[in-house]
């Protein structure tokens, strides 16, 4: 009996220690080139955490054999069936270098090894690229859009946030997650008795209520990523990751990439995930 009480006390203490402290575990850059080995990595991660995770999918498949395209599409269906939460992650995850960009956008390309597709684009080009990525997603046999959109390398432009939130529930940059929630606005039918007046008033108010119905919440969330970092900085980056997980504020995003299993090694990847699980509760984007 005493042993059971001690175990219960320890469990209660652990639960209290990360009460309200949460994090998101997301596998980034799931794509046509790596999906077969990525599935193995995701399975290993799932065994460590004991539950499904979030996965950011790059929808472009390029010129691949039909059999490979079908296997990729089937893998996405299997991920969904297994309970994983999917997000859309750019179009090609590679920038079109012929596009005009702001000074910020050009710098972002340099820092991101040219994967920051949306960085510094004007409004028209940004919308066109977003529409392109959505079309590629539908071409994979996916009728419904996923919950959120993750810009490659978290670099954006002046228009992307609003463009994404017009179609998706969540958008994110390096320090913040934005989540759109629907507000129900009630209508009092007794306010007007004249049908014509009611029709005009309803039309006039409809446009106002569209903005009232879409309320965007902001969540402090630092992105933790090792992708693209030089080998010499990986040790410091892992220490920084642990400090971010320890911090009493925010809902950090621990992002795992296919290359991490090589750059920092599988053992360190898994140990970092275990560390995060010991300090915080793992959630999905939909739980925010």
Q: Give the number of helices.
A: 9
- Overall strand count: 10
Name the average pLDDT: 88
Considering DSSP H and I runs of 4 or more, what fraction of the residues is helical? 40-55%
Distance between the termini: 38 Å
Derived structural class? alpha/beta
- Using the coordinates above, name the CATH class of the largest domain: Alpha Beta
Q: What is the element string, with H for helices and E for strands?
A: HEHEHEHHEHEEHEEHEHE
Task: Report the oligomer.
Answer: single chain
- The overall number of domains is 2
CATH superfamily of the largest domain: Glycoside hydrolase/deacetylase
CATH architecture assignment name of the largest domain: Alpha-Beta Barrel
| Poorly predicted sequence stretches spanning 5 or more consecutive residues | 183-195
Main sheet properties: 10 strands, mixed
Global Rg: 22 Å
Tell me the strand percentage band: 15-25%
Q: Using the coordinates shown, work out and report the CATH topology of the largest domain.
A: TIM Barrel
Q: What best-fitting shape do the alpha-carbon axes yield?
A: globular
What do these coordinates show?
Helix 2 runs parallel beside helix 9 and helix 8 packs parallel to helix 9. The two termini are 38 Å apart. Helix content is 45%, strand content 16%. Strands 1, 2, 3, 4, 5, 6, 7, 8, 9 and 10 form a 10-stranded mixed sheet that branches. The chain is built from 9 helices and 10 strands. It has 2 domains: 231 residues, TIM Barrel (Alpha-Beta Barrel); 35 residues, no CATH class. It has 288 residues and is an alpha/beta fold. It is globular and about 45 Å long. Strand 5 and strand 6 form a beta hairpin. This is DUF2334 domain-containing protein. InterPro entries: DUF2334, Glyco_hydro/deAcase_b/a-brl. It comes from Hallerella succinigenes.
